[in-house]
């Protein structure tokens, strides 16, 4: 038997049944034939069907009209919807759309296993990118090179090292010309005016496809429920979104709202209200200017600044390539200056020009030593707990740290003169 629709053929506006002239004489207490719940359900289904078609059309343009579309997949709710759409269209199993994932070494323990389950389900293989110089999955190597507490010491540098640089490297490695991502207008005022296609602020004019730009968060979960889409296990634990485990919490914090077996448990409004999807993200973090952190750095202006070169190459600053060379530089019997640096550090980058100018006119040898790869050594031998650290080495081998954050040629000259006053080299 065919189901009865709220939009029955014999209805007038809004599903209210038309009455014959004789029925008009009936008691006014007779209720009109109208199924409000069914009307709402059918309206939502109509909306979702349109959103699906719109999103798939955008994805078709991204994959077919561009030569090399890439989907950076964070496996949040919107991303699993896009994964499913790409799967439906055959773009994953065919390899027409590549998938990349950034592993920050601080993800929830469920995330990478969930990725493996998606790869098996949709028949694709993601390419994982992480902090430069660290093998995939090797947290110990990351801790040794960058420091386990980098995110506490400098969140902006952490974003660059663990998110932006690997992200940029992934786009370069995959040679993409169109990046697909799951940003939506519903996520908050920072994204309230995005469209389905943009020129990204990264990658030098790279196209950005936002196939679900016009979806609400409720639309996303409606789609997941409709197609029983594989989704991150943290949704069943009270997390509307997820990123790094270190700064992500359930919403509400008591975990009373959950998405289990393709339906909500508890009050769903804390998740579905406008700009609520990411309320549990970046908790306790602030930007340098003191403002509340709302973006990881990947989708903001300036993210195009990458770290695929060293600092002070080919100029007056001499390179100390090994710990042995650095040790030897302190035992020459001559005064010198040694800058301990990391090429990804924004403060090292910021002083590059001034330190090169200082080296060009200095009457002592000026060296650089990359400290992020030899943390124990620079902490023990070169006074280094953060980057950059400038040291003056006296002729007797004493290493004196420059404590000021004023990094001008004049300031460097003054510190060298003061430190070496009365010393013969």
Topology of this protein?
Layout: H1 36-65, E1 69-72, H2 77-88, E2 98-102, H3 111-122, E3 127-129, H4 139-146, H5 150-153, H6 155-173, E4 178-180, E5 197-199, E6 207-209, H7 217-227, E7 258-260, E8 263-265, H8 269-272, E9 318-319, H9 323-329, E10 336-341, H10 346-350, H11 352-361, E11 365-370, H12 375-381, E12 389-393, E13 399-402, H13 409-419
Parallel strand pairs: 1-2, 1-4, 2-3, 4-6, 9-11, 10-11
Antiparallel strand pairs: 5-6, 7-8, 10-12, 12-13
Helix pairs in contact: 2-7, 11-13
Describe the structure.
The protein has about 425 residues and is of the alpha/beta class. About 35% of the residues lie in helices and about 10% in strands. It contains 13 helices and 13 strands. The protein has helices spanning about 35-65, 75-90, 110-120, 140-145, 150-155, 155-175, 215-225, 270, 325-330, 345-350, 350-360, 375-380, 410-420; strands spanning about 70, 100, 125-130, 180, 195-200, 205-210, 260, 265, 320, 335-340, 365-370, 390-395, 400. The radius of gyration is 29 Å and the shape is elongated.
What is the structure about, briefly put?
This protein is 33% helix and 12% strand.
């Amino acid at each position: 038997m065919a189901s009865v629709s709220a939009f029955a053929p014999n209805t007038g506006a809004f599903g209210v049944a038309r009455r014959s002239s004789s029925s008009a004489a009936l008691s006014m207490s007779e209720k009109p034939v109208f199924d409000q719940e069914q009307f709402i359900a059918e309206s939502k289904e109509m909306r979702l069907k349109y959103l699906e078609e719109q999103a798939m059309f955008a994805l078709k343009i991204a994959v077919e009209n561009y030569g090399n579309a890439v989907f950076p997949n964070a496996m949040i709710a919107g991303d699993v919807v896009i994964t499913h759409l790409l799967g439906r269209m055959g773009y994953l199993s065919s390899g027409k759309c590549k998938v990349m994932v950034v592993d920050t070494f601080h993800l929830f323990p469920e995330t990478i296993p969930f990725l493996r389950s998606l790869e098996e389900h949709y028949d694709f293989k993601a390419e994982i990118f992480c902090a430069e110089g660290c093998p995939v999955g090797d947290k110990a190597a990351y801790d040794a090179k960058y420091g386990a507490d980098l995110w506490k010491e400098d969140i902006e540098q952490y974003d660059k090292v663990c998110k932006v640089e690997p992200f940029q490297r992934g786009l370069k490695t995959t040679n993409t010309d169109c990046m697909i991502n799951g940003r939506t207008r519903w996520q908050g005022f920072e994204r309230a005016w995005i469209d389905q296609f943009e020129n990204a602020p990264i990658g030098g004019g790279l196209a950005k496809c936002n196939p679900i730009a016009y979806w609400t968060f409720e639309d996303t979960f409606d789609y997941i429920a409709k197609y029983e889409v594989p989704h991150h296990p943290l949704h069943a634990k009270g997390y509307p979104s997820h990123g790094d485990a270190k700064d992500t919490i359930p919403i509400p914090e008591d975990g009373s709202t959950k998405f289990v077996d393709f339906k909500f448990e508890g009050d769903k409004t804390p998740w579905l209200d406008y700009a609520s999807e990411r309320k549990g993200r970046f908790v306790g973090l602030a930007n340098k200017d003191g403002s509340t952190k709302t973006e990881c750095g990947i989708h903001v202006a300036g993210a195009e600044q990458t770290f695929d070169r060293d600092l002070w190459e080919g100029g007056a600053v001499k390179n100390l390539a090994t710990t042995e060379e650095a040790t030897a530089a302190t035992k020459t019997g001559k005064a010198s200056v040694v800058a301990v640096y990391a090429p990804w550090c924004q403060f090292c980058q910021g002083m590059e020009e001034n330190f090169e100018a200082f080296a060009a006119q200095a009457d002592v040898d000026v060296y650089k030593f990359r400290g992020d790869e030899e943390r124990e050594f620079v902490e023990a031998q070169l006074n280094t707990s953060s980057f950059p650290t400038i040291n003056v080495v006296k002729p007797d081998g004493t290493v004196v740290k420059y404590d000021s954050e004023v990094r001008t040629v004049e300031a460097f000259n003054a510190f060298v003169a003061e430190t070496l006053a009365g010393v013969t080299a």
